[in-house]
Amino acid sequence: MKTEIREAILQHQETIIEHWTTELDKFRTEDNLQSITKKVYENTNREFIDKLFLTVQNGQEDVHQELIQYAERLIQLGWPLNYITRGLQEFRKVTVETISKSGVSYNNSIEFFQEFENWLDGIVNVLVNEYSGSWENTVFLQKMALKELSAPLIPVFDKISVMPLIGTIDTERAKLIMENLLDGVIEHRSEVVLIDITGVPVVDTMVAHHIIQASEAVRLVGAKCILVGIRPEIAQTIVNLGIDLRKFPTKSTLKKGIESALELTKREIVQIDE
Amino acid sequence: MQVHTHVEITSEWGIVAARQAGRKLAREVGFGSVDQARITTAISELARNIYLYANKGQIKIEELADAGKRGIKITAVDNGPGIKDVRRVMEDGFTTSGGLGAGLPGVKRLMDEFIIDSELNNGTKISAIKWLR
């Protein structure tokens, strides 16, 4: 930033702060800022404008770290991005208005405006980047978390494993299910695998297709698949859709599935008489 | 007041969003759990077809009130490649994508009314209605 502009802004510091604070107070009542107490709002405003003036004084490079820290704190406290952008917009308006009234001819020149806009854009970029970075990070973490709760194969008895499926099955998860299923069957030496779809909200043709393919693959590695946890409404939609599951042993509940899996592996659970 | 929702299908997440919107409206209209599952599954099929064949399109879900009858209408619109032979896609087991080929005939059976309108290279529009009994 040029020295003339810096000095002009610093010269009118008090007026700018005063007007800016009044403008910001006006939109406290709107949006999602209402839940914030007056005191906290005023403190945050003061800090915001201090940071801005610090940047005017020392140049953006020196204050860069502080700006980022300020944005990080706002993100953590859940302040909307809207607060930052509006704060900066008001700052531009108030500053340009105040300075252009000062009577110095340079302060009305296009060059002055451009210089000032460039400087402000730099700050906008830093703060908005910080915000969007944190959103991207959140989305990424949630995707990872979703993947982690995807489709484990659990050995429940010798030769019998269960794969509980929960949530929406998309192409990516379907692939994962297939891989986990085959790896698990070989690793645990399973003879019977129960696929439990109690937690799958919608079984459409694609989901059915993936399950059929998975069970076919399981058959190829020498094990048997039983589909369990078919809720009554899912059973009806499967029939309506005309999906052929005749080749496929199915059971209504996991309990019944385990009973028939034990039968298939020629075992049973008996009560011991004392 | 009639409610309608638009969902843009541009990725697999759009399918989930359309489905959830459909289930919510079906519940509000007063459909039972079996019909809710039917409607959601039909939306899922139509939305997936959009995603699979046309890459992008819209699903519109609206409440119907007609001569004392209430229902829900799903409209799927895309500007994709269109369907070459509408009669064949309504046959069970016909597929061009290696799927089960049960999608469109399945939707027809899941719903009460079904209209398909498609022109080669000019997109597809499918509407399906389920009435509340």
TrEMBL record, chain A:
Residue stretches spanning the membrane: none
InterPro entries: Bact_StressResp_Reg, Globin/Proto, RsbRA_N, STAS_dom, STAS_dom_sf
Keyword Transmembrane helix (UniProt): no
Domain STAS: 150-261
Gene3D superfamilies with a match to the protein in the record: Globins, STAS domain
Pfam families for this protein: Rsbr_N (PF08678), STAS (PF01740)
Keywords: Phosphoprotein
Protein name from the UniProt record: STAS domain-containing protein
PANTHER family given in the database record: RSBT ANTAGONIST PROTEIN RSBS-RELATED, RSBT CO-ANTAGONIST PROTEIN RSBRC
TrEMBL record, chain B:
CDD domains: HATPase_RsbT-like (cd16934)
InterPro entries noted in UniProt: HATPase_C_sf, HATPase_dom
Annotated Pfam families: HATPase_c_2
Superkingdom, natural source: Bacteria
Domain Histidine kinase/HSP90-like ATPase residues, every copy: 34-133
Protein name: Anti-sigma regulatory factor
